[in-house]
Amino acid sequence: GRQRRSTTISTMDPLTALILGGSFLAKEAVGDAAKRILGPSWDVVGARVRNRLFGSHVGPVVGEAAELLLEARHEPQPVPAQILMQLLEHASHEEDETLHQKWVALLANAASPTAANKILPSYVDTLRQITPKQAEMLDWMHKQSQPPVWADGGRRWPDFKRDDLEQRFGLSPADYALLFTDLERLGLIEPRRPLHRLGSQDVETQVAIISEWINDRVQYAEISFTALGIRFVEACEPPAPMSP
């Protein structure tokens, strides 16, 4: 992942000092971009409330998001208050480096003019609730996309088998059930029911088989992404570079 850098910051205005927070090279462009991300929403709450909620930990998140936008040649836009304040509050307390980078990417995408309409406020609450292991699994699943069937179609994702996921990520059956039940609760994945072909049974037998299939408890033998899951994973990835 991206490495956090430290340097001595010269005299600057308080907001720039908070943004750079001693963790970033004091570049004027980064400071300006970060201020644009925060926008007018940052001024809505007083300094005392900001310090109580975020302290000095908000600086690295905003500074790194500004760097991502500059590197991708995106013009930073103010992030809506309903996303910004909750995102900074939760991101500032993140201790896992992998999840930290996802908070940074989510903030960068929320401030990007090309992705702002794709960022739902619910993404903040979802990222707050997933574990590093769940993030690792979602990232791997997302990389398994397949070419579109039609020329004008989008990417497709396969169904994932329980046995394969348990083996790849070293999960016990109990841990698998727990983690993927939780991901379904968040709306990121959905279970797939195995299809049973009906033979030459009489109608009454066929109805009984179909009824059992509908009412059977889902065991997550196969799972797939939801549209929400795909968009959420992409929202937590660094913005794609713009053409020069």
Task: Explain what this protein looks like in three dimensions.
This protein is mainly alpha-helical and 244 residues long. It is 54% helix and 4% strand. The chain contains 13 helices and three strands. It has helices at residues 14-20, 28-38, 41-44, 47-54, 58-71, 81-91, 97-110, 122-129, 132-142, 162-169, 173-185, 203-215, 227-235; strands spanning 160-161, 189-192, 222-225. A three-stranded antiparallel β-sheet has the order 1-3-2. The radius of gyration is 22 Å and the shape is elongated. Residues 1-12 and 22-26 have low confidence and may be disordered.
Based on DSSP secondary structure assignment, what is the total number of beta strands? Answer: 3
Largest sheet: 3 strands, antiparallel
| Rg (CA only) | 22 Å
* Secondary-structure element order, N to C: HHHHHHHHHEHHEHEH
List the defining traits of the structure above:
244 residues; mainly alpha; 3-stranded antiparallel β-sheet; 13 helices; 3 strands; 54% helix; disordered N terminus
Short structural description:
By secondary structure, the protein is mostly helical. Helices cover 54% and strands 4% of the residues. It has a 3-stranded antiparallel beta sheet.
